[in-house]
Write a structure and sequence with these properties.
The chain has a single domain, classed as Immunoglobulin-like (Sandwich). Helices cover 12% and strands 30% of the residues. The strands form three sheets. The protein has a six-stranded mixed beta sheet, with no helix packed on it. A four-stranded antiparallel beta sheet has the order 5-4-9-10, with no helix packed on it. A two-stranded antiparallel sheet has the order 3-6. The longest helix has 21 residues. 26% of the residues are buried. One calcium ion binds next to strand 1.
Length: 171
């Protein structure tokens, strides 16, 4: 009888573990805002041949991450202006989001409902109302990217690198 109870307990515990595993929250702590251009002239052209502002995210981890549910915005007031669909960011790889105002997702492109203001505002990523990364910026010049140097610091660069490692060139 004791053995049966012990087995039952084991079964209940295991079920609990599996239920916990399936309900696991995605871990977006390894996703960073890495670079953006808030006044795009010819630093990036989308599949319509247009030149929307763009935001680059970087995955600092060794794992591919599905960004589904991650939110992107241009301010803290409304965090979920753009919510990622099923979309993989590769391990140590990049995803470009187009701040075009079109609010559409195609096979290859993500377009937000908002644009970035060249006069300055914010880029924010969040999940379930919790801000994961935020960058505030002042006035931006055409085709000059604002790019992350390290965990804390950002710099302007004359060489925008959408989808590739940031480069810092100012002359
Ligand atoms: Ca805006
Ligand atoms: Ca880059």
């Amino acid at each position: 009888m004791k053995k049966t109870i012990a087995l039952l307990l084991c079964a209940v515990l295991l079920c609990g573990l599996f239920a916990g595993a399936t309900a696991e929250e995605p871990d977006f702590s390894c996703i960073r805002i890495n670079e953006f251009v808030a006044s795009n002239g010819d630093s990036f052209e989308d599949e319509n041949g247009e030149s929307p502002d763009w935001i680059e995210l970087y995955n600092t981890s060794d794992k591919d991450i599905n960004l589904k549910g991650l939110c992107l915005s241009d301010g803290k007031k409304t965090l979920d202006k753009f919510v990622f669909p099923d979309w993989i960011i590769p391990a140590h790889g990049y995803v470009i989001v187009l701040a075009s105002g079109y609010d559409t997702v195609t096979e290859t492109e993500l377009h937000t409902s908002f644009k970035l203001s060249a006069d300055g505002e914010r880029v924010v990523i969040s999940y379930m109302g919790e801000i994961l990364d935020i960058v505030s910026f002042d006035a931006q010049e055409k085709d000059i990217a604002y790019a992350r140097v390290d965990k804390k610091d950002w710099q302007f660069t004359l060489v925008p690198t959408p989808g590739a490692e940031n480069q810092f060139v100012m002359e």
